[in-house]
Amino acid sequence: MDKTPSKNREKLQISPSKNRRRKGDGNGFIYWRTITKNGKDYQQAYYHWKENGQKKTRYISKKLLGDIQEAEAAKRPVKEILLFLGISITPSNNSPSNLLGDIQLSPSKSDISPSNNSPSNLLGDIPSSPSKSDISPSKMRRHKEEGSGNIHWRIITKKDKDYPQAYYHFEFWTQGDRLIKSSKYIPKQLIHRVEQLEQEKAPVKEILQVLGVEL
Q: Is residue 1 part of a domain?
């Protein structure tokens, strides 16, 4: 279970995607999982949504990740994003009550543990996985001197319901030495701006300035 401070629990009661999509477009979000292989940590992207009252999760392959991130940042209807993933939903399944990917998500099905959620285990710029070739999008597109980072969603439980909270994980390196590795909570009102900057692969320092972090 995530040990997020109580003040953060009060800031985000529902996923930001639920606030911005139109009613009837459904709700979903990209979730990053951290796996450890051969002593190294790697990130994998998944899309979470709800269909017919059941929680659904689909792995996002590296080649689709950019398109999915762009569609999610634009808050496209969930069914359009699922089409990218090769999933077709029938009309009866498109009602708001059937597409609630960002509420009541069971932590047991999200493969989350405290060790996986700690900043020390979540690398913003990570090598490709030997098995899945999962690469952090920041590693593919940012210049090395601009730092590396990514948005990571954690699941918290409040009054027996699960909610995602957004954090920005970042690293800075110089001459092969890591100078900084940290994590910053993203307030609800800043999530859309941070998503835009991350999609554009803006320098990490620029994103941190939005979050009030000066380096």
A: no
